[in-house]
Write a structure and sequence with these properties.
Helices cover 46% and strands 15% of the residues. It is α/β, with parallel strands linked by helices and 316 residues long. The protein folds into two domains: 4-167 and 209-236, 3-Layer(aba) Sandwich (Rossmann fold), CATH 3.40.50.720; 168-208 and 240-275 and 295-315, UDP-galactose 4-epimerase, domain 1 (Alpha-Beta Complex), CATH 3.90.25. The chain has a six-stranded parallel sheet. Strands 6-8-12 form a three-stranded parallel sheet. It has a three-stranded mixed sheet with strand order 9-11-13. It is globular and about 55 Å long. Residues 4-237 form the NAD-dependent epimerase/dehydratase domain.
Length: 316
């Protein structure tokens, strides 16, 4: 039976991951932790600042965890505003989590990102193994994190695993401080205002994925037979790649009156321009059977339906 501890459990991925894992493995077997207390919690919860190595170890030990999923991190746009803090939090938190995993012999997951690539990386069908010279602090953190996880596997035998997530789109917890967040905002604004002003320029391709596919990918990778994994910590995965005008066109199939214009944010556009247009995820498919269920139009239909229900319920 798995006993899973999650850091950053109130964040965009963490909040939904906790619920999914509680369904899969039982509520009492999934311990959520975060620096802030949630308004309500469906199971065990502890307040944890990931910079506090001793408390992280103590909580994992007392819970009897056999798995640690380290999700706490600053995203790309926020990291760029305070790079020193981003380095300290993203790398310090990861180091504390890896040390906890090493000392307690835990299986370990932490996400990398398309942000681990840079302008010199091949942009189309970006290979699994390729040039990684990112120009953002977030990217520097992600590359260092991938290498650190490899190191803990090769030197200490910690069962580290991870994926390079594209932009994640969800109707539950909004993201905070990412470059790909426009692809979430657009659905909220479509439902609330029928119009969206994009901070990402026309023609900018980025990889994306609907949250249910991202959560399933985590479960599948963690359940995969260790012997089949060659890359372990940094699998390219993707479900779709689109531009702002393509996601707008997808929304217009459901809401013909939806309109979009542009007010490009140079800071986030520069980050987007440094990232791939589309990833090659053949290694993830071959090594642990990764498969995404949602393409752009299927995701759009589901997002708009769920958001209409959610926003209507909130308003009433
Ligand atoms: C971000 O935009 O920073 C994240 C990511 C792609 O890692 N969504």
């Amino acid at each position: 039976m798995k006993k899973i501890m999650i850091t950053g459990a109130c964040g965009q991925i963490g909040s939904e991951l906790v619920e999914k894992l509680r369904v899969e493995y039982g509520t009492e077997n999934v311990l959520a932790t975060d620096i802030r207390k949630p308004v309500s919690s469906s199971g065990p919860f502890e307040v944890l600042d990931v910079m506090d190595a001793e408390r992280m170890y103590d909580i994992a030990n007392a819970f009897g965890a056999d798995t640690l999923m380290h999700m706490a991190a600053l995203l790309s746009a926020t990291a760029e505003k305070d790079p020193v803090f981003a380095w300290n939090l993203n790398m310090g938190g990861l180091m504390n989590a890896l040390e906890t995993a090493r000392k307690l012999n835990l299986q370990f997951f932490t996400p990398s990102s398309i942000g681990a690539f840079g302008p010199s990386t091949p942009k189309d069908n970006t290979p699994q193994d390729t040039l990684q010279r990112p120009t953002t602090m977030y990217g520097v953190n992600k590359v260092a994190g991938e290498l650190l996880c490899d190191y803990y596997y090769t030197h200490f035998g910690v069962d580290t695993r991870g994926v390079r997530f594209p932009g994640l789109i969800s109707n539950v917890t909004p993201p905070g401080g990412g470059t790909t967040d426009y692809a979430v905002d657009i659905y909220y604004q479509a439902v609330e205002k029928g119009h969206y002003t994009s901070y990402i320029a026309e023609g900018t391709y980025m990889d994306m994925m609907y949250m249910p596919d991202a959560l399933q990918a985590i479960v599948d990778l963690m359940e995969a037979d260790s012997d089949t994994l060659v890359h372990r910590n940094a699998f390219n995965i993707t479900a779709m790649s689109f531009t702002p005008e393509q996601i707008a066109a997808s929304i217009q199939k459901v809401m013909p009156n939806f309109t979009m214009d542009y007010d490009v944010d140079p800071a986030r556009q520069a980050i987007a321009d440094s990232w791939p247009n589309s990833l090659d995820d053949s290694a993830a498919k071959a090594e642990w059977g990764f498969k995404a269920a949602y393409d752009l139009d299927k995701m759009t239909v589901d997002m708009l339906e769920k958001l209409r229900r959610k926003l209507y319920r909130t308003a009433s």
